[in-house]
Amino acid sequence: MQVTDARGMSAVEIAALMQKKAFDECELSPGVQAGVTAMFGAPLTAAQVVERIVTDVRAGGDGKLLYYTNLIDKAGLSVQNIRVSKAEFAEARQSADAEVVEAIERAIANVRRFHEEQLPKTWLTNRECGAMLGQKVTPVDSVGIYVPGGTAAYPSSVIMNAVPATVAGVPRIVMAVPPGRDGKVNPYVLVTAELIGIREIYKMGGAQAIAALAFGTETVPKVEKITGPGNIFVTLAKKAVYGHCDIDMLAGPSEILIIADDGADPKYLAADLLSQAEHDPLASAILVTDSELLGNAVAAELEMQLAALPRQEIAALSLANHGKIIIASDMETVIEMANISAPEHLEVMTKEPFALLPYLRNAGAIFLGAYSPEPLGDYYAGPNHILPTGGTARFYSVLNVETFMKKTSIIAYTQGALTAVGSDVIKMAEAEAYCSLLCGSQRLVHQRRTVSPCSCGNAIIHIQGVAHFAGIVISDIQSYYGASVHGTEIPINLHSRNIPHSQIKLFHQRLLFCTDGRKPLPVQIIHSSPKTCQTMSVQGPCFQSSWHL
């Protein structure tokens, strides 16, 4: 793999060096493009393929789902066997190695324990005058988890998708996984799903699976959210159905970036770079270091380890097209490069890795130290391995328990609390200049006003309903805060509403009150119709009374 010396580069050149293609800018490999042309009779782009499949499955249901499943996966499935049966679960259990299953069980326990720490809670908090505000947390009703198949089996992706969903309390969890040409699913994928409690599994993959989950078919009921990684066709399909259901993120090819200084072991670094390169020819593996000696040593070590790698061809393509070893002038520049890249996996292989942690802003997961290799997080440690890619860690988060939950605001005001802020609500509606909103706000606030005790210690007047005095409508009575001020004047505003101009009379009353609560003061409403004059008394800064009209 080529070593790039960035020590003389400008900031603009460094940014360009670390720039990555977006997931939808990736070109299909010649082999995949040839397959697309053969299947569809034209050299369609990935986006065109996805648009055709999603549209067809949405309109054609099971028929089109099975058509594309058998066309692409050549599995020979039907409505009768597209869903994994009890017999297939039993067969998977019998064929699975017991030691592997025990390791899977321990991994499930680790992931569950970690994600239980993330579980948000519904909460309520008290505000002034008895008001309460809060947030209600609710799991989504159903979720479809996508588990990749094809060139490799990923029971770890079952764990990372399904465990947070079960911790969140999602009532219905559906799994989609591409079948092999024999129409079966990898036994460890099925065993893992069963251990977690997932038994509704459909043998379908690609864009057709995403469309079936989003829109539903005669056999596959629709879900409210779709999560999980996949290839370019899966990601573009998730983008296409977003809005009809929710999705977790738009993920691209896997990637790793390693920060290292001269104390790092080249063998460890090479092994960790290859752990991502072997995933996909489009995967990205990058080392950034301030040590030229280390960079050259890692390049040599990569060649040796690559020769013995089972998935050598895939890893070699990845390293040739998307791999980099970059020599920076100092560790500050190394950190800057990492933040620009915003990698899916970020390893920190330095003498003091925790010292760099506060400066690392953009990454899906950060692995600190020589004994925290990226595969540890992929399979076992507990944090989720479904991470933002392609630089989207600048704004996406790792898949987590809250991915499977909704948050709903709770607002519960008392009459006193509403009165205290009612004028502000009306003023904001007036400022936005929406007549229907303004009238509605005034009506709703005024109809709810009444006098009640207030614990906040403010002198507040409340009104219930719309008060009429000789053809004049009282539409607002302001609230004032007496504190220790004596003899404060409180104006009561009278506004006409839907009354002929000849009958409109505006009056300005003043209410004198004392704040020590010892001397009741009379309040008299004065206007043109003496028979409707009313008198009431107030007691101190907090009082209870009402208008009797």
Description:
It is a single chain. The chain is of the alpha/beta class and 549 residues long. The chain is 38% helix and 18% strand. It has 18 helices and 20 strands. The protein has helices at residues 11-18, 30-40, 46-60, 62-73, 86-95, 98-116, 155-168, 187-196, 206-215, 232-241, 266-277, 292-307, 312-322, 331-341, 353-356, 374-379, 415-432, 435-447, and strands at 3-5, 123-126, 132-139, 142-146, 172-177, 200-203, 225-227, 246-247, 255-260, 284-289, 324-327, 345-349, 365-368, 405-412, 467-469, 472-477, 488-495, 509-513, 521-524, 535-538. The strands form five sheets. The protein has a six-stranded parallel beta sheet, sandwiched between helices. The longest helix is centred in the N-terminal third of the chain and has 19 residues, at 98-116. The protein is globular. The model is unreliable at 449-549 (pLDDT under 50).
Uncertain runs are 449-549
Overall helicity:
25-40%
Overall, the morphology is: globular
The computed structural class is: alpha/beta
Q: Biggest β-sheet, characterized?
A: 6 strands, parallel
Mean pLDDT: 82
Extended strand count: 20
First-last Cα distance = 89 Å
